[in-house]
Records
---
Amino acid sequence: MTAIATNTLESINPATGEVVGTVPLTPADEISAIVSKATVAQHDWNALGLEGRLRLMRPIADRLIEVAPEIGRLITSEMGKSTPEAQGEATYGASKFESELVSAFEAFQPEEMADEHTRSILYRDALGVSAAITPWNFPMLMPQQCILPSLMAGNCVIFKPSEETPLVGQAYADVLNEFLPEGVLQIVHGADDQGKALVASDINLVAFTGSREVGAKILTACGPDLKRVVLELGGKDALIVLEDADIDAAASLQNSFRNSGQVCVSTERIYVEDSIADDFENLVVEKTKEWKQGDPTDETVKIGPMVSSMQRDIVLAQLKQALKDGAVLRCGGETKDNYIEPTVLTGCSHDMQIMHDETFGPICCIQRFTGDEEAVALANETPYGLGGAVYGETQHAMNVARQLTPGMVGINKGCGGSEGTPWVGACQSGYGYHSGRDGHRQFTQVRVVSIPIHEMKPNY
Ligand code: NAD
């Protein structure tokens, strides 16, 4: 939670209301000078070459591992993420830093293609200066996914962390800046005014992770200058539970409550085959009651508060409307301070707004269907397309999964792919994507240089 004063951003612990710390607010009219500094620094940074940048950035991994517990504690105090999840985010991010660097290094290697007449070399060059504008729900991982490949590609980065989590953003940037040359990674603190000024400035790429609404604004703002964008946006993920599913496993996915439901690939809609619905719904309710909620610094607690009173109110308004429209409250629904109990609603239908808008809170909505065709139609009736899951006999579930529109679908598991696969938002959940070889390459400009095949092969 934050309070914005004239010159400072105050970070407030959503569990206690205490001030965690402050950062200076970056005046929006100073952003063009920050961009100029990055443009100057980018020349030498790019000239280091891929090997030079890899050598320089590799030691960051060990340092991140050292500070991960402290960053984890900061994540808990700034945004209320439970201790196991916050420590997990920081430790996972730190442990992946080196392998992601190497993966980007490999993705950016020049590539040769030839036919009988021509030898061509595909270079993946830097774009110049990029912005990394990120949300609060994974305040270390989301920045890392936007910053690391961009730096490896030879871009300089201007990083604007969410105004809800400026201290985690600052701590992360400070670690990188122990190793990076001056001006290669700079930080801008603030909210939408600073975001807008950064997008409007003389930069070459905006790597944004956040809501669909802000993503659309950024795309529009980048239009006149045809600035490159990579937008990873919100979701409204569906879980389909087929008649032949292991219902205990499906009810155990419990992807609706992690981080108090404040996860882009949270399961916000569950569609269950009518014939198994009673048993499945009872199981979900039973398992939901096992989630321990409370002080996020208590290591036995699984979910803490919402990030802010504003986010809490958005979720409660959706819940209230759904109940008014006829949804059945099966458990949860209570609220105190910034906490919302893990909540299960059954009897949901697409006449209810809660089945369409991203909720971003600990509310699991269940609707019944009859037959695969109806399940597919319901799951696809959304402008979003981030993740999804299908539980059922493997081939049956695969047949259903291939008819779904999201960029990532899990079968008898969550939507996350194996090592090296990109993180893909399809439809209005993304515009471009990141991670993996193909994701890393979106931070580069491809250039093709060709020579007659009979001429000597030059050094690249
Ligand atoms: P948000 O869109 O409100 O804000 C994201 C960032 O954009 C913040 O840093 C904010 O200050 C900045 N911003 C706001 N208005 C701006 C503007 N006009 N121009 C430029 N920058 C601006 O999102 P949030 O509330 O911080 O995060 C939650 C959203 O992020 C959810 O929709 C969630 O699904 C999404 N998300 C998506 C992914 C993914 O991988 N697809 C991952 C995490 C979060």
---
Amino acid sequence: MTEIITAEEMSRQREFTEKVARLNSQREQPPVAHVHTFGCQQNVSDGEKIKGMLSGMGYGFSDSPEGADIVIFNTCAVRGNAEDRVFGNLGALKHEKRRNPDIIIGVCGCMVQQEHVVKKIKRSFPHVDLVFGTNALHTLPELIFGQLTERKRSFYVPGGDGVIAEGIPLKRENSLKVSIPIMYGCNNFCSYCIVPYVRGRERSRAFSDIIAEAKAAVDSGAKELLLLGQNVNSYGKELGSSFSELLRAVNAIPGEFKICYMSSHPKDATRELIDTIAECEKVTRHFHLPVQSGSTRILKEMNRHYTREDYLKITEYIREKIPDAALTSDIIVGFPGETYEDFCETLSLIREVKFDSLFTFVYSPRKGTKAYDLPDPIPEEEKGKWFRELLSVQGEIGRNMYEKYVGRTLRVLCEGTGRTKDSLLTGRTEQDVIVDFDGDERLIGQFVSVKIEQAFDWILVGKSVE
Ligand code: SAH
Ligand code: SF4
Ligand code: F3S
């Protein structure tokens, strides 16, 4: 069962925040924290909570672990290379600890929800002081107080179905583009994926809490709200609500802003939801709908609960209802037992759908998942070849994809200085396509009409028009 963290517990944590702040205020110089987040938007959002809590405890922030009083690695477990990167970075902190034995080194996030990782940290990374799991985030003030008052290694990784903790302070990375978690965890157990094991069961935040957070963000100037969950399409099932209902309510908040969301699972991308998106003018015209494979046989092995045909039907319906929509996807190459013929079905699917862009991954075995135990006879080298073939096919499809925008005037949220040149501004269209354009710096943070003049593989270039 989901554990709702009580108001009393949150107020107890606030008391610890104050105690730590008092200890820190006695120091000659204000202490500094370095928080490094790996992984997806969900983790970035947790990182904002970690920084929010640390800020309340009197910590300033630095971009590097050097000279920091506390270092926290907020980790990701989704693929082997994500974990290797964390271990590499953790190893490098040994020198920092030698230089400054008072430094507090903490590791949290998805990796530490795995027992074998905690064992490895205990054994091979003795300079790590504090390990806390995804369900223990809200207890950070208490854990830091413990570290400051009695220096001993502490490991706190509660299991269970997962918690919902409201009222954790936030230090937003970006005040223009604001992330709002709407649900946590995942129940889908795609056979390759570690997320359901490290993030617990699917649980939705209360409708009213989400709307209040969205309103407050818009009132303080946010122009883009990113609604977050592992599978936002199943929001609210246990509350008698739905993602469609939530989208309508967020869309009805007064003000000029854009609504984005991630991730969507194709099995729950219903016609009703697509109709809702078509009607809600603030919702992005970008569908990121991870297909993973174009082979129905592999999709079944992956436990995805849709067929190739189901997927094609959804994308056709999107094209019919919202002809302007951009479509992107995730693909896994080399799932255990995948043959070259199966892989060719993925190639034919991407040719058929014509995605704007793809996030492509070589299958990475994750201990504890169902696919981990499946025979996997294709050598990595061969998978690498398939992967390069996929990139080259998508490269051809993507080329000239943006030509259709040349000559049109598009609404762009201006985010900052140009990606191609400092003298330009940059932003994203309603389809999430990146645009660099000529214009006055005062446009940063506003919606701007941009006339598109040139199209490249990954970016449009144009001029702002009134
Ligand atoms: N909840 C999101 C996905 C989160 S993980 C969703 O279902 O869309 C993001 C992407 O990582 C997945 O879509 C998948 O393509 C990829 N991925 C997940 N586990 C993987 C693994 N074991 N090996 C390779 N890629 C993986
Ligand atoms: Fe992983 Fe599947 Fe859940 Fe996405 S929906 S997080 S891929 S188990
Ligand atoms: Fe990684 Fe955890 Fe996100 S495993 S992808 S950080 S939910």
---
Amino acid sequence: MGRTLRFLVVLLAALGLLAGLGYAVLARITSRWFERDLELRSSLAVEAARDSLASHWSSDRAGLTAILANIARDERIMAAAACSSHGELLAATEGYPAEFPCRSLLERMRHQAGDATSWSMASDLAAGPVQVGVTLLEGDSEPLGAVVLVHDLRFLERREETTRNILLVAFFVLALGASVVTLLAARFAWRRWNLELRRALGGEATHEFQPLLRDVRALAERLSQEREQEGRAGVWSAERLHATLTKHLHDERIVILANREPYIHDRGAEGVRVLHPASGLVTALEPVMRACSGVWVAHGSGSADRDTVDGKDRVRVPPGEEAYVLRRVWLSEAEEQGYYYGFSNEGLWPLCHLAHARPVFRAEDWEHYVRVNRKFADAVCEEVEGDDPIVLVQDYHFALAPKMIRERLPRATIIAFWHIPWPNAERFGICPWREELLAGLLGASVVGFHTRQHCNNFVDGVDAFMESRIDREATAVVQGERRTLVRPYPISIEWPVHWLSEVPPVAQARAEVRAELGLAPDALVGVGIDRLDYTKGIEERLAAVDQLLLRYPEFRGRFTFLQVAAPSRTKIERYRELNERVEALAAEIDARWSTERYHPIVLLRTHHEPTAVYRYFRAADLCYVSSLHDGMNLVAKEFVAARDDEHGVLLLSQFTGAARDLTEALIVNPYDLRQASDALAAALHMPADEQRARMRSMRRLLSEFNVYRWAGRMLVDAAELRRKERMTGRFGAGRAAWGGESA
Ligand code: G6P
């Protein structure tokens, strides 16, 4: 706006200057025209009266005077006189100015106009400006003299004034028009330029691995909006998150409900050990809990979990640090089967991911899901302090818990975060318990997703299947007195990652890993690290490596892809099948390209602790994340975090939420094997300075967009909502409003 204003001021000043100059020139020209006009009128008037003037010239002075008076009847002629050729005044109308004696006029005319028969000059009288015109009058044989007409020029002043006014109005109209036209032209040109730019970028995007321009724009917009909002508060850190909690939520203790526990006590051959599960959710939330303290309520799934808790099923974690409490909830085998394997992972997981797996909905699974949600909701209510706690309910395992907690704690601030995609309404509609799921989540104060798209899908689902009002402006769902905000909060990782202090630096990690895998010290290594899940596109990834070796022979014998696949949900048939298929595919590719000393694929199907994972990231030349559909995917962000040497290339599926943040990765469609293999080749050929530029930019982004910001922003939004609700006194009616039966 400021720029437009400045531009208009300059434009108007320029136009004003031009108009001033134009007016001066125009004034000169028009006054010249008026003079000529007067001369012409003088000679015409004299010419018309020539005969009668001639007949009365020397003999009849009274007649001459009458003729002159007749000529002077023109309102613009002030006076007229007849002069003899010798300069004597023969006759004059009344009021002929004495300033213009015949003799001097004729002399001046002779002097200035030479042989011309008419001449005029301007002069000023007390009454105003005049123009004196002299026209010679010829008799039949000799010159008779001259007729002098004194023109009143005051009308000219009036005319000039009118002209000036018209010019002024014209100038303003012109200036306005010019400004509008210029602005429109500028806007049009800008849009065209944008279009050109887009086209140019679109052209580049056919150089396949560019991010979607839409995502880059959305990211830039988000960055600038958030920068503005954040002001000078600085980068989010564990300390800032804690300070936010203290400031906005008065240091309330946070209770997190998530199925997966951050620390699993497992009994092995060498006794009890602590495992860190492969879960993006845990990766993200654990640092948040360390920063905020509080309680994490989770399923106690480790074989030694029961042995390590106190009488109230609690254990302080992290071991040795004891920053917060882990409250374990025990599930029977049937409950785990129905709630976890059944409804959560055979029903909701495939329902929410576009990965060609058919969801299975069984009534008995649903019943377990309801019961287990209630069990966990009760555990949460046991852990809270006071009647208005902050509860963070995590993921698809607990869609019903927000409403169940709300029924018991109407004043609670409940934030539900859905870590996986949310399907469109049509797809979501196939779930037999769609209304119950939506009602359960709407018990939360805030429902969060990674992307705006998933928020929109959720709101569309509510619109399609629930009685409610959608406040699209505030992206909120309103049901009676209650309001649930629906917001995107893209999740991230801690920054800096605390594990990295225990991981060898890049050069050492490279050398160690190559030696361990029996590779040459200069071998090129790609890495993929996932749970063995059909949404991760592991088969497509291995097939892309196969294509690379087929289409780029220079990498045969030189490039090895290391796939770390942590076993996951192995009781589910679909996962067991995947395990077999991945194994068979890896063997097939290996058979095609391996030599005595070379293997194109190394498949490690065991759980790896975070330090081992980070060491692989540091050892690799590239990391390929090929998810077919993924809410966010934190592996991509972890790879970037590991590369403090600013080298290594990230290939990232366009179907991950992370592709919207990490736009400097090579963005690929994992189904397009030709494109993916080209991207692998491009990564392996990428010059070091390009790698550095891309990696540096992604690292800068992650250092700001870290998980403390994710949690902080949700908490700030929740706190604001809480303040508003308290102000409107809504809590009075809360318990009654939430007294109904839940699913
Ligand atoms: C995804 C889910 C998490 C889950 C993780 C591991 O990231 O969003 O909620 O913890 O997968 O799956 P698991 O079933 O082993 O917990």
---
Amino acid sequence: MRNKKAVAILVSGGGSNMVALVDSMLNDPDHPGRPCLVLSNNADAGGLKRAAERGVATAVVDHRPFGSDRAAFEAELVKPILEAGADVVCLAGFMRVLTAGFVSQFEGRMLNIHPSLLPKYKGLHTHARALEAGDARHGCTVHEVTPLLDDGPILGQAEVPVLEGDTPDDLAARVLEQEHRLYPAVLARYLRGERSVLHLG
Ligand code: GRF
């Protein structure tokens, strides 16, 4: 398929969601997207090696030298994304909060996956919070990124049951399996202009 949209993926760690996204694009000749860059704030991110093994260009912009100057970090972070000609940016286990200034450059073309059924449990420790609340259902959400953290229009959700005796790690593992189904499905729909919410059981 010609005229594929270029997708940049930002990671901070192992990048299991990035692998799911990259493989979904590389394994389907009719996929509307192609991976153009995997970018990390962490030179040791396992995702960088996994991307390179798949022939995807990688880059690192370490946030630490910039200290608390988020704008200076983001002014560097945006460069490889622009150089790669990204049409869409996917945050996938990217653990830096991005400022409104950065996000506004990609308004309407930046996605994120969050490990809860938003709007519940924005922020961190989502699995422990769902367990503490005694929720029977939990899951993950893919949403458009807007300046407010974990707050943009929802594009897809996948649910899992909470089981007796679950630890946060048990729940995280069950949710992560669904993330790897949900994010690739939502990205393909999104690149085809579909904006209705996808619900996976
Ligand atoms: C996962 O919990 C995911 O929900 C969140 O970051 C964590 C690591 O994801 N976005 P990955 O394995 O690095 O994709």
